[in-house]
Amino acid sequence: xxxxxxxxxxxxxxxxxxxxxxxxxxxxxxxxxxxxxxxxxxxxxxxxxxxxxxxxxxxxxxxxxxxxxxxxxxxxxxxxxxxxxxxxxxxxxxxxxxxxxxxxxxxxxxxxxxxxxxxxxxxxxxxxxxxxxxxxxxxxxxxxxxxxxxxxxxxxxxxxxxxxxxxxxxxxxxxxxxxxxxxxxxxxxxxxxxxxxxxxxxxxxxxxxxxxxxxxxxxxxxxxxxxxxxxxxxxxxxxxxxxxxxxxxxxxxxxxxxxxxxxxxxxxxxxxxxxxxxxxxxxxxxxxxxxxxxxxxxxxxxxxxxxxxxxxxxxxxxxx
Length: 320
Hints:
Elements: E1 10-11, H1 13-18, H2 23-39, E2 42-50, E3 57-65, E4 70-78, E5 90-98, E6 104-109, H3 110-129, E7 136-140, H4 144-156, E8 161-165, H5 169-181, E9 185-188, H6 192-196, E10 201-204, E11 226-229, E12 246-249, H7 252-256, E13 268-271, H8 272-276, E14 290-293, H9 298-314
Parallel strand pairs: 1-6, 7-8, 7-10, 8-9, 10-11, 11-14, 12-13, 12-14
Antiparallel strand pairs: 2-3, 3-4, 4-5, 5-6
């Protein structure tokens, strides 16, 4: 990456990949910044969402860290019409400022961070709520987020098999090929139930625009299964959610400001900060069914954008 003197560095996806940030690096940094929130070293605002009514989803996050001393803001647009333009459906950008002076530090590829931090947040929860011997993962939705989750979960658990179900075959087959390159058995499932029933971990990343009609039944889950739900739980049948022995969400304060809860509040055991800090109990038995449902937390964007910036400086790529 070449940066001219006086210009604002742009950390592209290709550059970020070259930093070889590992799964454990990402998950550990997210956890460190979550703990920092409790200690008063990290501050994050609830995400802001604008829905213009034309199937666009527009969102922004804001987070500030003490170490590294950065302020991270992410602006994101999801537009299904981008496919007709040959563009990704989701596009975003993260800007980093010095949290003390407010001077700009860098712009970061928000698509890379969004994919990585979403899977990273799932991993933080999975470390505590999934069975350590989980061997089979079901993916409901097979796009970018599914691929990110496959990378992370394959690093953290002794996986042997994935089962994939999606609306189309292109993403599903690509996800299966990706799994096979990691030595895993990949099964393209004809129904969502066939994918979910044998799985130890279920990952749902269903596209939210247009809003999906609920079709996933938590009764399909076997004893001991863990579900990580990135899609606001919209694809899940609401009445079936009581099957879970424990549901953790990402942020209780953020959720309280939302017009519609992801799941009934009485089913929620706590949030990710509570889980990481020990206020919310981790898995209690091998047969317990657990879930993590989340909208996305600014701390995830902050953690990974800050980590990437720090790593880039460490290798000398961001020196003026």
